[in-house]
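Technical note accompanying the year-one report. For the benefit of new consortium partners, we illustrate the data format agreed upon in the data management plan: each record pairs a sequence with a structure-token string. No post-processing was applied to the example shown here.
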Amino acid sequence: MDEDIKKLLEGFADRTADGLPPADIDADVARGRRALRRIKRRRRVTGVLCVAAVSAAVLAIGNQVKWWNNGTSEVATGEAEKTAGPTPSPTANGETMSMFATGAAVELVANKQTWNTIGCSLAPKNWTPETPIAANRVVLTPPTVRTADTTAKLVIEAAPQARSLMSVRVTDSGGKAYHFGTLDGRTAAQVKLADRWLLVEVPAHSQDWNDDLLRRFLASCTVN
């Protein structure tokens, strides 16, 4: 590198105008070397500053993305956010309960009435049977219902054959197989008692009856 600078300066010296003092080649070489070192140092400093500026920009953009996305790693896709379900609330004994109400609960109590050929030792509290009671069919009316619409009532029916339920699930209890599902859009359950099947249809759109309640009710029944 020094030789290149020296030759360059010598060429300039040969072309100097008449009357000018001859160039000091050694001094010029020393100045050229110092200039090169300054240029190299500036390049290194500039490179470091560029890297630092890029890093700062990346960090700033990253923090803004986190702020926009509430700290999540995914960005919005334009789809509507799904509404969260009800948050369970703790009760005094540490258990939780849903914030959604499902209506008045059905309570099974001792049944002192006779329903023709169908007999059940349990019955929903304050539900009354329609009269006259048929031989193989009982219709119970909830205390808050005053309508002739049978779909708003509980229907108990005995038949020699099982009915075809939709979405069937089976539970074995006490040596019996209880079938739960839907019949014509209504929640229903049935069990075989001796040589006959006993079917229960829950009032339409009711959420008060679950599988366990239906099983307990059916387990208390007999068919003569």
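Partners are asked to follow this layout when depositing records. The chain is about 30% helix and 25% strand.
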